[in-house]
């Protein structure tokens, strides 16, 4: 062994130079330690969480099987997944993804309802605008006929909106119920 190899081995085996993984395992940190760049000694909790969820040998094997340029991202992903798994042992990250997908679905449903309301209001306004000249012409010829037709249109609009409001209330109650579950 050359002199430089001895000094490098001594430097890597000194307690200050070991990575968090090697400190946790109570072993000397080798020069080619796969875990050292991703689990520094300054953040021992990062490795402890990953080791608890995935196991020491599995973490090292997963990182060794990846190209060098993908290892940092994989280590960060393992840390994130391990922390979520510790916080929520049943669902982990999948629970967060599921909740976010539910929120997206609720927002899309609310958007569709709002767009439907806008379309209904626009159609009602267009119908009123289209019927207004006819009503004015009829009002000039037959004064009593115009208020009855307008009252019928208002009744139709009220019935339509009451039905829509009932549907929206039912949808809102269903959304609230699914959020509770």
UniProtKB/TrEMBL annotation:
- Per the similarity annotation, which family is this? Belongs to the LOB domain-containing protein family.
Q: Which Pfam families match?
A: LOB
Q: Which organism is it from?
A: Miscanthus lutarioriparius
**Entry protein name:** LOB domain-containing protein
InterPro entries in the cross-refs: LOB (IPR004883)
Q: Where is the LOB domain?
A: 17-118
């Amino acid at each position: 062994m050359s002199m430089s190899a001895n000094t490098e081995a001594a430097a890597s085996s000194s307690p200050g130079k070991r990575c968090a993984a090697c400190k946790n395992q109570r072993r000397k940190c080798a020069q080619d330690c796969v875990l050292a760049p991703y689990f520094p000694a300054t953040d021992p909790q990062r490795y402890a969480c990953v080791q608890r969820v995935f196991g020491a040998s599995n973490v090292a094997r997963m990182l060794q099987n990846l190209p060098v340029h993908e290892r940092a991202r994989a280590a960060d992903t393992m840390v994130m997944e391990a922390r979520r798994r510790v916080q929520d042992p049943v669902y982990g990250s999948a629970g967060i993804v599921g909740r976010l997908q539910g929120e997206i679905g609720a927002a899309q449903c609310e958007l569709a309802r709002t767009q439907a309301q806008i379309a209904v209001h626009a159609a009602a306004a267009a119908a009123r605008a289209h019927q207004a000249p006819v009503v004015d012409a009829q009002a000039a010829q037959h004064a009593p006929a115009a208020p009855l037709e307008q009252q019928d249109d208002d009744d139709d609009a009220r019935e339509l909106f009451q039905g829509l409001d009932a549907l929206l209330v039912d949808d809102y109650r269903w959304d609230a119920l699914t959020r509770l579950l």
